[in-house]
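Why does residue order matter? Because the sequence determines the fold. Keep that principle in mind as you read this record.
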Amino acid sequence: MPPPPMVIPNQSDRAADSPEPDDRSSRMSFLEHLTELRQRLLYSVLAIAIGLGVGLYLSDRAFQFLSRPMLKALRDHNLQDKLIYTSPLGPLQLFITVGLYLGIVFALPYVLYQVWLFIAPGLYRNERKAVSLFIVSAFFLFLAGTAFGYFIMLPMSLDFLIKVGSSGPFTAMISMNDYFDLTLVILLGLGLVFQLPILIFFLSLFGIVSPQFLWKNLRYAVLLIAVAAAIITPTTDALTMVIFMAPMLVLYLLGIGVSALVVRSKRRAAEASAGAGAP
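Structure:
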C-alpha cells in the first residue's frame, strides 16, 4: 500500500499557524541588512532634519509656552514677569536648543516607526505584538510624565523657589537659559520616571521579578521612591516631594498589575506548550 501523499502547507498557512519570523529577513544577506539599516538611518536623519526646521520655526512660540509657569510665579509674588539673558548669544542659543528638542519630539514617532520596520521582519509574531505595545506605551507614558511635570510639578516648584528667594534681601533676575535647563531636567526626568511600568514589564518578562516579589517589597519600594523624590525634586519642602512621590507609587502599583499579566501569560504559554508536547 503506497504511503499517503505529503501535504506541504503554503506560505499563508505557515504564517498563520507558526510564529516564525518573516522569510524576507531570513533570505537577506548581511550586506542587504546593512543596506536596509542605512536606508532606515537615512530616513530617520531626514525626519529629524525636517523636524528641526519645523522646531526652529515654532521655537519662539514653544518657549513662550514653556515660560508661562515661570512668568505666573513671578506675577504671583508681585515681581516683574520678565526673563533676562546675560550673553548676546543667549537668545539665539536658547531658540536653537528649543528648536532641536522640539524637532526630535516631532520626528520621534517616525524614527520609532523606522526602527520597527527594521526589526519587525526578524521577530516572531508574539514578539512583534510585545514590541509594538512597548513602543506605543513608552511614548504615551513619556508624554504623560512631561504633562504632569509641566502642569503640576513645575508650577509648584517655581512657586516654592520664588517664595524662598523673595523672603530675603534678594531681587529675582531669572536667566532664560537657566530656566530652560531647569524645565528640561524636570520634564525629561518625569518622562523617564513614568517608564517604570515598562521597566517592570521587561524585568517580569525575563523572570527577574514577580508580582509577589514586588508586593512583598512594597515598603522598600516606598523608601526608594522617597529617596529618589528627594534627589530629583528641585525643592526641599515636604509637600512637593509627596506630590512627586504620588505618581511614582501609582506607577509602581500599576507595574505590579503588569507583572501579574506577564506571569499569567507566560504560565499559559508553558501549559499550552506542555499540552502540545504530551502524547
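DSSP finds eleven helices and no strands in the chain.
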